[in-house]
Design a protein that fits this description.
Length: 106
């Protein structure tokens, strides 16, 4: 099952206080970026974020789920209706996320 554009739009609206939140469609799902760094994504209409230490501390009871078969586990964000919570989560994890890799020109 792929994610709906409506769910993506809802999550982007919830994150609208943040600058530089972007996304990229990938095989029916959406990768979410904050300040150019991959935070997580929307998979099967679920918001999942990378399980970095700050995300685990911010959501200590979060459940680990697979975004798709064969992928690494990510944290399920259940409080998607809480705009302040989501904004705080993205701000909390930003510094810990790896910088984007430079693309090599062929």
């Amino acid at each position: 099952m792929s994610s709906s554009k409506e769910y993506l739009d809802f999550i982007l609206e919830q994150l609208s206080e943040l600058k530089n939140v972007t996304y990229r469609a990938m095989m029916g799902e959406y990768i979410l970026y904050y300040g150019g760094k991959i935070v997580g994504g929307i998979y099967d209409d679920r918001l999942l974020v990378k399980p970095v230490k700050s995300a685990i501390q911010y959501m200590p009871s979060a459940v680990y789920e697979l975004p798709y078969e064969g992928a690494k586990e990510m944290l399920l964000v259940e409080e998607v209706d809480n705009k302040d919570f989501l904004t705080g989560l993205f701000n909390a994890v930003y510094e810990e996320l790896p910088a984007p890799k430079n693309k090599k020109n062929n």
